[in-house]
Amino acid sequence: MGEYMNTATWSHYTWQRGMTVPTNHAVTIIGWDDDYPADNFLEGHRPPQDGAWLVKNSWGSGENEFPNRATGLWGLPIDPDDPAKGGSGYFWLSYYDQSISLPVVYLFDHSLFGAAAESGLDPKTVVRHQHDFVPNNLITPIPCDGEARMANVFTADCDQMLTSFSFMTDAPDTAVSYKLCLLGQGFTSPEDGVPAAEGEAVCEYAGFHTVALAEQIPVGEGQSFSIVLTYRMADGSSAYAASISYGKEAPNVKEGFFSRYSTAVIGRGESFAFRDGSWADMACRDGLLTLFGDPDVLEEIKAYDLQLDNFNIKVYGIVR
Predict the structure, then answer these.
(1) CB of 230 closer than 8 Å to CB of 314
(2) Could you give the CA distance from residue 312 to residue 300 in angstroms, rounded to a whole number?
(3) What is the per-residue pLDDT for 75?
(4) How far apart are CA 109 and CA 113, in angstroms?
C-alpha cells in the first residue's frame, strides 16, 4: 500500500503497468468525482489527469460494530476534526489505476416490489425461493460437451404469484434459455410437469441478473415448481455455473489467507444437473459426477476441500 496509497488523503493509484502488480482484492465502487485532484495522490507517482472512483473497501468502518467494524482504523476519516472516531473504510481510486480488472456490475431491480404495490400488497409480502446460502468465493463455468442444463426445484409454502427469477453468469455475452415448470405429483425430474413460462435472456455482462416473467404465474400452497436454465457461452459452448466456497481444509484457509470457511449442504430434490440426456440430483454422488463429468476432477475438488453449493437460481413472487 505504501507505494500506491496516500494515507493523508486516502487516495490510491497503482502506477505500474502490466502484470507487475497483479490484482488480489475485490472492492465496490459506489461513486465518482471527475474533478478529484491528481495532486491528492502520492508525489512522484501521480495520475496524468484528475478523476477518481469513490470505493468501499471490505475492511470495516469505525461507525459499525463487528463484523463490519474490523479495526475501524482504515480509510477516509469519519470526522476529519476527530480522528479518534476512526476510518470509514472508503478511499479514492484514480481513474487511471493500472490494476483495475474483472469488473462486475450489479443493477438492483425494484420492479418486484412495484408489482406488489400495484396489486395493493405490502412489499413485505414479497417471497424469495432459494437454496444457495453459502458465500461464493468462486463462480466458475464447468464446460460440457453436450447441452448443460441446471435446475432448482421449490415448493410454495403459501398461495402466491411468481413474478421473476434470478441467476448469475461469470462471462460476458452469455445467452441463458429458461423454462419454469409446474411439477406434478410424484415428479421424477425438473421437467416432469407443465411449462408455465419459457424464453431466453442475453446477458451482455457478467454478474447477477433478474428476469421478469412476461406474466405472473399463480401457484398454490404445496405446489412444486422448477426453473431450468441452459447457458450458451459466447463461443457457442454450453456450461454449468457452479458456486464454490472454501472449506475448513482448503489450502487458502489452512494457510491463513482466509479467516473463515464454509460448509455447503445440498438437500435431496433441490438442485439438478442434466448431461447426456438425463437428470441427476446434486445431493448424490451421481449428480456431482454429472456436473463435472470426470471422477478425477471430482476427487480434486474434494482434495482441496472446495465446497460446492446449490445452483444460485432464485425465484421471486408475491403473496396472494
Answers:
(1) no
(2) 22
(3) 86
(4) 9
pLDDT bracket for residue 286 (50, 70, 90): confident
Cα 22 to its chain centre, rounded Å, is: 22
Q: Is the peptide bond before 67 cis (omega within 30 degrees of 0)?
A: yes
Q: Which residues of 216-225 are buried (b: 16+ CB within 10 A; e: fewer)?
A: bbebeeebbb
Task: Check: CB of residue 11 under 8 Å from CB of residue 91.
Answer: yes
150 Cβ neighbours under 8 A, 6+ residues apart: 228, 229, 230, 231, 240, 241, 271, 272, 273, 274, 311, 313
| Contact present, 246 and 305 (Cβ < 8 Å) | yes
Please state the pTM of the whole predicted model: 0.70
Judge whether 264 and 134 are in contact, CB under 8 Å.
Answer: yes
- pLDDT the model gives residue 55: 94
Q: Per 3-state DSSP, what percentage of the chain is helix, strand, and coil (rounded to 5)?
A: 10, 40, 50
Name the amino acid, one letter, at 108. F
Position 96 scores a pLDDT of 93
Report which DSSP code applies to 38: G
Going by pLDDT thresholds of 50, 70 and 90, the confidence category of residue 105 is low
Weakest-pLDDT range from 23-37, 82-96, 130-144: 130-144
Other C-beta atoms lying within 10 Å of the C-beta of residue 271: 26
Residue 186 grid coordinates: 410424484
The three grid cell numbers given for residue 84, joined into one nine-digit string: 479518534
Phi, psi angles (nearest 5°) of residue 68? -85, -5
Per-residue pLDDT at 107 exceeds 80: no
The pLDDT-based confidence of 109 (bands split at 50, 70, 90) is low
